[in-house]
Structures are given as structure tokens and as C-alpha cells.
Amino acid sequence: MRIGLIGAxxxxxxxxxxxxxxxEVTDLYVTDPLLDRAQAVADDVAAQVVPNAExxxxxxxxxxxxxxxxxxxxxxxxxxxxGIPVFCEKPIAGGLPATNEVVERVxxxxxxxxxxxxxxxxxxxxxxxxxxxxxxxxxxxxxxxxTHDYEPPPPGYVDSGIYVDTQVHDFDILRFVTGxxxxxxxxxxxxxxxxxxxxxxxxxTGAVIxxxxxxxxxxxxxxxxxxxxxxxxxELFGVGDSVxxxxxxxxxxxxVEPDGVAVVEPTPKTFLDRFAPAYRAEIxxxxxxxxxxxSSPCTPEDAREAQRIGIACNISRAERRPVRLEExx
Length: 329
Ligand SMILES: NC(=O)c1ccc[n+]([C@@H]2O[C@H](COP(=O)([O-])OP(=O)(O)OC[C@H]3O[C@@H](n4cnc5c(N)ncnc54)[C@H](O)[C@@H]3O)[C@@H](O)[C@H]2O)c1
What we know:
By secondary structure, this protein is an alpha/beta fold. Helix content is 35%, strand content 23%. It has two domains: 2-118 and 278-297, NAD(P)-binding Rossmann-like Domain (Rossmann fold, 3-Layer(aba) Sandwich), CATH 3.40.50; 120-274 and 308-319, Dihydrodipicolinate Reductase, domain 2 (2-Layer Sandwich). The strands form two sheets. The protein has a seven-stranded mixed sheet with strand order 12-11-7-10-9-8-13. The model has no long low-confidence stretch (mean pLDDT 96).
């Protein structure tokens, strides 16, 4: 298979390595307006640098979009119009109108499309989903989830805000694991200046309460600076059992109990430390999707649902009120 990789930043480098290691990938093309980045990936994985995405469409069998968020929508449309199966990092776009246009046009094109919510491929989240699906947890009273980054994204990163850019992962995996839809959200948030990052960047924090379709209450926090490490978890409290995703020895959370469990170093510091196997598995799954062997494990429609929760959070925080999902159309 001939694959075009669009974007050679933090996640593009990793996807390039996964693609290059895949036995069915014979040719890899890479593009990034920052030429040194594209060249570094090309040197690392024996790919060929191409000036832009348009220049590679005639030569590729599938496209992997790992570019900055503001170009996802036009690139997905480029792939759809060329009839090329496409994988795209989240989010599809920063706003809902552009996401809607992509969802509708990709669906009309019939092109297979997968969005990059890698937690769907993480062993812990999959085990939790299994316990929900087989009835072991029974009715879920509550779910707690969090994404606490070790440090904020670097300057120049295109950020859609804490709910749509970061906590959108928690929203997607909440739907995936529980099988329930969000009905209503209440969100608050704050900006703090963390001088230690040296550039006076405001660090955004989000806190969200979600009512799910079967009455489950979900509490979710998003933090961009967690000094012990990258802390991503989900706790599920049901009639039959209480379980935790992410409660591993390397969990970056220090207990202050006299008999508490000590943190085992190294803790994960980046999303790549925490989810490397899941990122590899989602790209392997995409090769199956692109070859017509499997249906998409995370569709553009799924991504839109997670984004609608994030947008409901934006409205809730701005208007200081609970927002029903049916308001977000
Ligand atoms: N699924 C995840 O866990 C996860 C993790 C990190 C990033 N992401 C997503 O991946 C995307 C990239 O994030 P990142 O952290 O790698 O950002 P980054 O800033 O490190 O890299 C983005 C790259 O895209 C390039 N780019 C911009 N416009 C382009 C274009 N038209 N064609 C080709 N390349 C272009 C930039 O020059 C840059 O090198 C974002 O949308 C982000 O939301 C997802």
C-alpha cells in the first residue's frame, strides 16, 4: 500500500513510524510546510517528501492526516473527493459547521474514514467496556474521568480549547465504554498563568458534569499541567462492581496515606508514553479499514458526537447554565 502522511509534528512522527513498520505499507510519502520536519520523518522511516497533500493524491492508496487542526477539514475533503480512504486526527474541525460539512461529504463519497480516538484501542478501556457490555457492572451510578497533561502543548500548537481539543478524548471514550449518549452537560473552567513555562501562557483547566441517557452521572476534569506525569483515567461505579482504568503502578498520583502505594517511576510524561500501543493499534486497524477488510472503528459521526459534547461545554461555561445536547445542532 502507498500511504500519504500529512503533518510531521508530535503525532505525525509517531504515526510515520507505525506506518513504516506495517508489513503492507510499501511506499510512504510525507508532507509538512515546515520542510525540516518532513525531511526528519523521511530520513527516519525512508519516506519520500512531497511539497503538499494535493501533490500526492494521484500516488497514494490511503491518507493519514496528522497536521494541525485548522487544516483537517479541507484535507479530509481532498481525500474524499479523490476517493482515498482517510484517517484523520481529532478533531475534524474546531467548529461544528465545518465538522458537519465534512461528515456529510465524506458519507456521500462512500470513502472509508476513521478518526483518531486511540483510547478505543487501549487494553484498559476495552476491558472496562467488556464489563459494561457483559453486565458485570450492572447499572452505572457514576463515572469519573480525567485527562491531566504533564505540561501544556508547545507554543505554535493549534488549540481548540480544553473541551474540544483535550477533554474530547474523555467524551468519546465515555460514549464508547458506557454505550450511553450525553443528554446534558454543565461545565466550568479557569485560566491560570504558570510562570514556569516562561512565556506567560494562560493554562486552561476544565471541569464537566454530564448526565447520560440511562441516568449515569459523569464527572470529568481536564488539566494541562500535572507535575507528576500524564494522568489519564476512568473510574466506573456500578451496581455490581467498581473498576478503574489507568490505576497502574506508574499512575502519576502520590498517595499521602501512611500505607499508601508509592508511585513507580517512570510515570508517563506524554500521551505517547501513555498510549503508544493504542496509537499503533489504531493505525493497524486503519490499514484494515482502507483495504476494505473492516468497517471504521471510529467514524466521523462518532467524532462529531464527542465534539458536540465539547461545544455544549463551551456554551455552558459561557452562559453559566446546564446545556442539553439537543441545543447543539
Ligand atoms: N489522538 C491524540 O491523542 C492526539 C495527540 C496529539 C495530537 N493530536 C492531534 O493531531 C494534530 C497534530 O497535533 P501535534 O501535536 O502533532 O501538533 P504539532 O503542532 O506538533 O504538529 C502539527 C504539524 O502540522 C503541520 N501542518 C500545518 N499545516 C499543514 C498542512 N497544510 N499540511 C501538512 N502539514 C501541516 C505543522 O507544520 C506541524 O508540523 C492536532 O489536530 C491534534 O489535535 C491528537
